[in-house]
Amino acid sequence: MVENNVDTTGYTLFWFHRLMIFYGLLFVVVEGLALLDLGVSPYAGDVFHETPLIIYFFHFVIDYAEIVFMMADALTAVALYLAVKDYNKTVFRKQKYALEAERYPLDCLELIRTPKEMYYIPLKVAMFYLLNPFTILSCVAKSTCGLNNAVIALFILCTVKGSSLMSAIFLALATYQSIYPLTLFAPALLYLLQRLYIPVNWQRSSFWLFTTQYTFMYLGSLCVMVCLSFFLLSSWDFLSSVYGFILSVPDLTPNIGLFWYFFAEMFEHFRLFFICVFQINVFFYTIPLSIKLKEHPIFLIFMQIAIISIFKSYPTVGDIALYMAFLPAWNHLYRFLRNIFLVSVVLLACSALFPVLWHLWIYAGSANSNFYYAITLLFNVAQILLVSDYFYAYLRREHHLTHGLYLKRKDGSEATLVLK
Amino acid sequence: MVPNLTNYLFLSEIMQAKAGQFFSSGHTNNWAVLVCTSRFWFNYRHVANTLSVYRSVKRLGIPDSHIVLMLADDMACNHRNPKPATVFSHKNMELNVYGDDVEVDYRGYEVTVENFLRVLTGRLPPSTPRSKRLLSDDHSNILIYLTGTHTQMECGYNELLFIIDTCQGASMYERFYSPNLMALASSQVGEDSLSHQPDLAIGVHLMDRYTFYLLEFLEDIHPASTANMNDLFKVCPKSQCVSTPGHRTDLFLRDSGNVLITDFFGSVRKVEITMETINLTAPMVHLAVERPVSELKTESQSYVDQLPVAEIIHQKPKQRDWHPPDGFILGLWTLILLVFFKTYGAKHLKHIF
């Protein structure tokens, strides 16, 4: 690439955002469709790793691809808007019951959320998603990440509205696209149970009944989708190309994730072990978080989406945009956040440094992969810090709501809360 | 070249004279050896000279494969060059003669008298690549341009033009005795060849006078030009050059008034399109290949018809060959409808049916 000869901004923009979004790009889909036209399975070349339903979808809309991605982003924003609006109503209801039952200590009334401050939150959530540079990059790059985000946003909407069938179907669709939304099963279940006033008690039969219902719906839809995909292409190739690809990480193109560098220098002998370790790492946080946050499933959804986008095998900035959209919903936690300056500065700096170090590494040849991976690591550390900061703030607020705002030790002196 | 042509041409009596004219100049290919032998930054102008001649010669048609370019120092990437990757021949930096497509065959310390003589005589080690060899034959016209410094040719050539832009250049050509050689020099014995114009931004002289006026003259030459060597001898009189340019034509067989500039500076091929078949008599060998004229005409017409103009004008969208199986479409949309009605109730059914 000769930078001197680049005249069109479109060309430079293409290469810029190519740095942060490597997967699910449209030209890969076009290639898959072209291979199909030639009578060959699209998974024959090792480039196409999208699900057959995406093939079906794009078969019709490939000529209008930009509009499709823009509409997907708009759909995500609308779904998030409606979901957060409904969630705010739920929050109010709970708060009202708690106030009436006088469960809050008297000095933490300033922590109570008022309708006035929460009026604009749904709009802010939608705007955060639409105006996020990462979303715009993802849309310009025409990455199927936008479609995945739309499905997850619709899933969240259906969960918040309380429709368990639709929630199960969208969750199955999201899992079908990439395996990781499987971890969202637990928070969805918790929220639906909460909504139906079924307590999470292992001995209760109503709990088990609902759980099995939901599980059946989910697994049933997943099976239906997989079987439909089989009928689309009349082969089971897609299982190894899509899910095998996600789980066994054969492609080590540098991206903003953590896998590529590690596995590039891994000996074959240990590869399977470390793949298992890394993949378990993604799914592992579900159980402890669910136990801790079983009263707050929507926050759990936020944390799960964040963990998926940090630890998944092929992250893109579109995944980051989705959980960042939720941040205005936790505005009330602002007073308890400790690292916000550091996190925002590091995220900004790393986003700026990604293309610079990529250029230095690949084109100028004066850096090497360590530089780029350092920025990747830093970026992910900043994200983890962001998520854990919000977790701390949330738990701290809950603690204050039960134990009062000004904490005193047994001898009466002032105490501080530490997250252990 | 010539033998291939004879397979397909048949000469009639009327065409014989034309054919004689066609092959009059005697050469079929052109080579150029451009040498700059001076080193160091203050000899910038010699490199600019050579590169300007290189550029003119390429413009007039001689390809890189037929040019041996020898530059003794690297001005473009010299750390004293305020504009790296450029070599300017005119002040105010109007013309960058280095460009993107310069192919230097001998550079730096490879430019020696010994290598120059080896190139001209062809006595190079067998591992030398083709780009460093002068692969002329006895139908080649060779242009040799020397600048910067201060021999007998044994390489195969048809005609040779020697241009020397150095101090006391005439001393070089006074010693020549090879046949069919024409030489031009920028200065006589005892005179110095002077530089033309300094550039204040780069800080050195950009060109020598003789080459400057020579190149001004060459800029007016295009591949179809009929300027001859007498015009070249008039380039840079004493009033402009201060030194007296000289030339030597006694070893040259043809009259210099008949020699075209493009015979040496360009690679001009004579092409004549004829609709008639021409019989070439001996010594050219010919094969009996009949090609009736009418066949040619019909072929040309059918080619025109075969051009799919209508298709090109009306660009249709690509036809897609793959379609999803019907069972799949049926199953998918049935499921979607089922889910829709389950969620929103059967009361919407009446809106559909």
UniProtKB/TrEMBL annotation, chain A:
Subcellular location: Endoplasmic reticulum membrane
Pathway annotation from the record: Glycolipid biosynthesis; glycosylphosphatidylinositol-anchor biosynthesis
Lineage: superkingdom: Eukaryota
Regions crossing the membrane: 20-41, 53-84, 179-198, 218-236, 242-263, 270-291, 336-358, 370-392
UniProt key word Nucleotide-binding: no
InterPro entries reported for this sequence: PIG-U (IPR009600)
Pfam families: PIG-U (PF06728)
Gene Ontology CC annotations of this record: GPI-anchor transamidase complex
Keywords: Endoplasmic reticulum, GPI-anchor biosynthesis, Membrane, Transmembrane, Transmembrane helix
Family of this protein: Belongs to the PIGU family.
Protein name, as recorded: Phosphatidylinositol glycan anchor biosynthesis, class U
Gene name tied to this protein: PIGU
From TrEMBL, chain B:
Transmembrane region(s): 327-345
Species for this entry: Oncorhynchus kisutch
MF (Gene Ontology): GPI-anchor transamidase activity
Subunit annotation: Heteropentamer. Part of the GPI-anchor transamidase complex, consisting of PIGK, PIGT, PIGS, PIGU and GAA1. Interacts with GPAA1. Interacts with PIGT; this interaction, via a disulfide link, stabilizes the expression of GAA1 and PIGK and links them to PIGS.
Pathway the protein contributes to: Glycolipid biosynthesis; glycosylphosphatidylinositol-anchor biosynthesis
InterPro entries: GPI_transamidase, Peptidase_C13
Gene3D superfamilies: 3.40.50.1460
Similarity field: Belongs to the peptidase C13 family.
Protein keywords: GPI-anchor biosynthesis, Membrane, Signal, Transmembrane, Transmembrane helix
Domain of life assignment: Eukaryota
GO cellular component: GPI-anchor transamidase complex
Protein name: GPI-anchor transamidase
One of the protein's GO biological processes: GPI anchor biosynthetic process
